[in-house]
Amino acid sequence: MLGKPRRVDLDSVRKMDEHKEFRTFNNVDPETGRVLTCPHGPDPVLIGVRGEDPADLVAAFLMVELEEPVERVMIFKTNQGTDAHFDRESTIRDISVHQSVRLNGRVSSPPKILKGGHVFFQLEDPTGVVDCAAYQPTGSFRNTILGLIAGDRVEAYGGVRQGPEERLTVNLEKLAILSLEEDAHYLRPRCASCGSSCESMGRDQGFRCRKCGRRFPRERLIRSVLPRRLRETFYLPPPRAHRHLTKPESRQHAEIDKSQAQMVHDKLSGGALLPVQCLSPSSAPKMSHSDPRRTLRAKPWHSTPSARTRSIA
Length: 313
Ligand SMILES: [Zn+2]
Prior knowledge:
Layout: H1 10-18, E1 24-25, E2 45-51, H2 54-62, E3 74-77, E4 100-114, E5 118-125, E6 128-134, H3 141-146, E7 153-162, E8 168-179, E9 183-187, E10 198-200, E11 207-209, E12 215-216, E13 222-226, E14 234-235, H4 249-252, H5 258-267, E15 276-281, H6 292-298, E16 303-304
Parallel strand pairs: 3-16, 6-8
Antiparallel strand pairs: 1-2, 2-15, 3-15, 4-5, 4-7, 5-6, 7-8, 8-14, 9-13, 10-11, 11-12
Bound molecules: zinc ion.
Zinc ion binds near residues 193 and 212.
């Protein structure tokens, strides 16, 4: 019913999600187990399953136990999960509030945690510096951000908002790490005579043993390189924090093979291969009491290539 909790057996959605061969995505948030296919808001959609291929969507949808009647089942070709909003690179000087931007730059200040658990760092490119934020709802993504150090080269994807102190802030939706800086640290040497710790004699000066007073040149500093826990790859927040257009993890590297693309192309007229969404709108008035499976068999799918992206979160 419109605006009411959807009567869908959530465990059946979780079971369906385990069938990776269906190539659906964003059914369940892996960190919390939360089911993401059923909208909460006042719209007519009972459940929306997102995936790569119409046949897979039908198979996946048939695994879901619906506990209320549905009026019809439709398959849409949409731009959900395509990163369509990040189609071109921006420079920091040119960004403005409410834009979706993709910025290529260098981490210029190490990340820090602010009140509320939000994580911020500064990004610079030849045109300026901007704050980038991973807010609390992005969960474990914040740990990724905390692993950055100054000097890392990244591509930051996100929406520009007015952040703390009225400064433009990029709310991160994705981060590509292009190259990792060496995490080098310098340790003071131990005394070669007595083994005690040494102290610095001042900036650009050497060291002096705290115990016996023996002096050592600055070159005796010990360079230590710490291992980095991040890799040069894409990092995303968990699906529960995605916007509809955000390309999910499973689609970041996967190239759809040509035969698959042709099959979808034949079924849905024209256009590039885009994810397909299976929507089962529950009708509010004049509810049809037909079994959703019967409805589905009667009308295998309704192709609406021009359908606009539906909001279902
Ligand atoms: Zn000494």
